[in-house]
Design brief:
This protein has 232 residues and is of the alpha/beta class. 25% of the residues lie in helices and 30% in strands. α4 runs parallel beside α6. It starts with a strand and ends in a 5-residue tail after the last strand.
Length: 232
């Protein structure tokens, strides 16, 4: 018997289906599967199963995330959107009153992102380099409350900081999936994570959550931080 219940985070749900419990979001575009995920009809609504193997945010929630800044109505800047797997679930969560500005550098990968945005009015695709936020400042409208980052670059903490400084003010949130092997292919994982967290702290960001994504994602940690002072 299938049963869908609200998760502790607004806009996120748990679904029990065939003796298996999964995360899901209520679909903003019923009838459309974005990446082959299962669609579940329940009490007149459609829910999309949220894979923990294909979304670092889903994996973080599964592994005990304590702070979830992305909520209904949130205005998000998403760095490293790729084809839009996690973006689509963020789109479900923020709903029609929120917006996801989705930045992707690869034009080839972004084709799928653009296709996704064609059926979801709350996604704004931006084909540009997340390392240079001033290049897309004119495209991002309104205040940004959350910067979510999932990029394969060596200076991940600095990229998050530069985007927060460009688009956000006091109280805004940063969410960072640290890809350890994109930073250093040989150093110890704990050293890499400690250095990135130390950089965030040095830049004036307050760490609120620090989640190991294993075994769902290898060599990744998920950090939630907040702007608690003026960023300069």
């Amino acid at each position: 018997m299938t049963k869908v219940t609200p998760h502790k985070f607004a806009g996120v749900y748990s679904v029990e289906d065939n003796d298996r419990t999964s995360l899901c979001t209520e679909s903003l575009t019923p009838g459309i599967s974005v990446y082959g995920e299962k669609l579940i009809d329940y009490e007149g609504k459609e829910f999309r199963v949220w894979s923990t193997r294909r979304s670092k945010l889903s994996a973080a929630i599964r592994n005990g995330l304590g702070e979830m800044p992305i909520q209904p109505g949130s205005r998000i800047l998403y760095l490293g959107a790729a084809s839009g797997t996690t973006v689509s679930h963020c789109s479900d969560i923020v709903g029609s009153s929120g917006v996801v500005h989705a930045v992707e550098f690869s034009e080839r990968t972004a084709r799928e992102l653009i296709h996704l945005a064609s059926s979801r009015n709350n996604i704004v695709p931006i084909i540009d380099d997340a390392r240079h936020p001033t290049r897309y400042v004119s495209v991002v409208t309104g205040p940004i409350e959350v910067v979510y980052q999932d990029v394969a670059q060596p200076n991940q903490a600095e990229i998050l900081y530069e985007n927060l400084k460009t688009f956000c003010s006091f109280g805004a949130w940063g969410m960072l999936a640290i890809k350890a092997r994109s930073i250093d292919s040989t150093a110890g994982l704990d050293e890499i994570y400690s250095n990135e967290i130390a950089t965030l702290d040095r830049l004036g960001l307050q760490i609120e959550d620090n989640i190991d994504l294993s075994p769902l994602e290898k060599d990744h940690r998920f950090i939630v931080c907040r702007v608690t002072e003026e960023l300069t």
